[in-house]
Design the sequence.
């Protein structure tokens, strides 16, 4: 069978042009077009920071009643594929995480999405009830803490081989901790992040059917941080680091996200031992001038291909 290509991408609610304040049709179309240019196309696309419908998602990009942000992305992606003569189609799954409301109207919503291309059949998903991995202990108002989740799909290639796909987005480090102020790198040093990494690892260990699994997303954790090292020590291989034989400091210097002048390696593809990673063609550093995804979000995607051992 052909290699399987995976993308993990924090799309910042398709609102990068407005600094995340409001989604725009142009930002969404540019991301759809960038995904459609991948050759070969991705088989599995995992997205973070995707809304359902809210004031933020509709302010600058109004949607017909009942149409979600993911619905609009899928229409744009299909259009971009057809424009390039690609007959491929994706099946989309949305995993709601949290909603902030004013009265009964959602101000903005958060969630994850997974797109699966035609060669794969989905036999299980937890879209109706994504797994809550949130650490709320350190938050001063626990009910206001944004919920963090892990999305799970079990997919089967048409050859019959199965794969467990986990998509997640960990919290930022809490400012209500000593580590936040004493560790200059901060990202991944929050005790709340370590607890969420533990919750994530326990969920994956319980749900995965074999060593054929991937855990991807925006972990808000630098290589070498306690949250990152916990996952590495509990059965999560960093596919990017393993393929390029990069140590932690070299990974830190390969940014996947940026904020003002900061450059950070926060996005990861973790993998089980039964997957043989062949390449990361299509990945590029955040801010790279000739990068396909440059300027589309405050993150760039990791794009990797593997074969089943």
Sequence:
């Amino acid at each position: 069978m052909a290699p399987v290509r995976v993308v993990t991408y924090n799309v910042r609610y398709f609102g990068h042009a407005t600094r995340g304040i409001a989604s725009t049709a142009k930002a969404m179309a540019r991301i759809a077009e960038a995904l459609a240019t991948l050759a070969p196309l991705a088989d599995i696309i995992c997205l973070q920071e995707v809304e359902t419908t809210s004031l933020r998602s509709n302010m600058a990009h109004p949607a017909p009643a009942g149409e979600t942000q993911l619905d609009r992305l899928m229409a744009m992606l299909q259009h971009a594929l057809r424009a390039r003569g690609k007959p491929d189609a994706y099946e989309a799954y949305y995993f709601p995480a949290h909603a902030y409301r004013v009265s009964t109207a959602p101000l903005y919503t958060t969630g994850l999405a997974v797109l699966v291309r035609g060669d794969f059949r989905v036999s299980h998903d937890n879209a109706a009830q994504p797994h809550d991995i949130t650490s709320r202990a350190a938050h001063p108002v626990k009910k206001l803490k944004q919920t963090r989740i892990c999305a799970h799909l079990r997919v089967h290639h048409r050859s019959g081989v199965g794969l467990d796909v986990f998509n997640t987005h960990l919290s930022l480090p809490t400012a209500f901790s000593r580590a936040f102020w004493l560790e200059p790198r901060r990202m991944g040093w929050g005790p709340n992040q370590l607890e969420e990494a533990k919750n994530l690892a326990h969920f994956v260990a319980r749900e995965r059917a074999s060593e054929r699994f991937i855990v991807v997303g925006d972990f808000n954790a630098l290589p070498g941080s306690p949250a990152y090292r916990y996952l590495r020590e509990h059965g999560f291989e960093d596919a990017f680091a393993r393929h390029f034989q990069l140590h932690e400091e070299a990974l830190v210097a390969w940014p996947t996200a940026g904020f003002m002048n900061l450059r950070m390696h926060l996005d990861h593809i973790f993998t089980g031992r039964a997957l043989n990673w062949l390449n990361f063609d299509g990945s590029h550093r955040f801010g790279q001038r000739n990068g396909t995804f440059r300027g589309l979000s405050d993150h760039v995607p990791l794009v990797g291909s593997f074969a089943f051992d």
